[in-house]
Design goal:
The protein is an alpha/beta fold and 329 residues long. It has 13 helices and eight strands.
Length: 329
């Protein structure tokens, strides 16, 4: 099987820096496993790597879509697997790096997508009706409708998660069945079958980066402060100035959504920044919950290395060397 190195973990654990060092050592090229870095013009809020920071290491699946383009996990899977083959053909080691759990697992595991659910054209009128109800009566109103038809799904989905609430209602509307009872369905606008099959499609080694929770939260807060210093507010203003709707899925990303709320008079700037920090902490917690279910991951507690990056790198390279045939220097 083709070799594949996966570097994953919650936001702010240092995946970018570590992956660059590993790539230099093993002759690797990096595929972004981040669902937001595909969008052009969304650089600061997604912590997108700058050209000068890449140190000559090729990066893929960054800046391939406009913010108003549709993008699904199925499309990501297809593109990522093509890049893996392309990198392998160059006799380089493909590296999948990021924190979007579903995207990463869709690539390395035998996830199959049902084409009829990729566009859901037939659901568009009903979806618009649901979105109008949410706009007029609030997201909680839509969540209450879901509670009435699928209580288990409503328990799993936060009332503010309009995308997944809508998806669950669409599913019930189309099939007459509860999405919570279909183990082959996902709430990310795509249906998946064979998601429980075991075994990677590649000779994969999974490296997870984590750290003590309070330190992670501290780093998240510092990271958000740095993003604001670097001009995240201006980035959001520029996107809106180009005519991109604040209701786009891409504009619902953490950082963008809260600053849009500020620009629309919903929050002060200080309140918006506080919300970004809170929501990023919640996001990191969800990332950890997702990844901890995968027992194949080799976890490294970054904070235990006391900033001794060389020792951390050496330990990671040792695990990689045991699992794949790479040109580790």
């Amino acid at each position: 099987m083709e070799p594949l190195i996966v570097i994953l973990g919650p936001t702010a654990t240092g995946k970018t820096g570590i992956s660059l060092e590993i790539a230099k050592k093993v002759g690797g090229e990096i595929i972004s496993g981040d669902s937001m870095q595909v969008y052009r013009g969304m650089d600061i809020g997604t912590a997108k790597i700058k050209h000068e920071e890449a140190k000559g290491i090729p990066h893929y699946l960054i800046d391939i879509k406009n913010p108003d383009d549709s993008f699904s996990v199925a499309e990501f899977q297809k593109l990522a697997r093509e890049r893996i083959q392309y990198i392998t053909n160059k006799r380089k080691i493909p590296m999948l790096v990021g924190g979007t759990g579903l995207y990463i697992h869709s690539v390395i595991d035998p996830y199959k997508f049902m084409e009829k659910d990729l566009t859901q054209e037939s659901n568009k009128p009903y979806r618009q009706e649901l979105l109008k109800l949410a706009e007029e009566h609030g997201k909680e109103y839509l969540h209450k409708i879901l509670s009435d038809v699928d209580a288990k799904a409503a328990e799993r989905i936060h009332p503010n998660d309009l995308k997944r609430v809508t998806r669950a209602l669409e599913y019930f509307h189309s099939t007459g069945k509860q999405i919570s009872k279909n183990r082959d369905a996902t709430l990310d606008n795509t249906s998946i079958i064979n998601r429980n099959e075991s075994g990677s499609l590649y000779n994969t080694v999974l490296i997870g980066l984590t750290m003590e929770r309070s330190l992670l939260y501290q780093r998240i807060e510092q990271r958000v402060d740095k993003m604001m210093e670097d001009g995240l507010l201006d980035e959001v203003k520029n996107l809106l100035g180009q005519g991109y709707s604040p209701k786009l899925c891409s504009m619902q990303g953490v950082g963008y959504k809260q600053l849009i709320g500020h620009l629309e008079g919903e929050y002060t700037l200080e309140e918006a920044v506080t919300l970004i920090k809170r929501d990023t902490r919640h996001f990191a917690k969800r990332q950890l919950t997702w990844f901890k279910r995968d027992l194949r991951i080799n976890w490294f507690e970054v904070d235990k290395y006391n900033s001794c990056d060389e020792n951390l790198l050496l330990d990671i390279l040792t695990i990689i060397g045991r699992n794949i045939d790479s040109n580790v220097e």
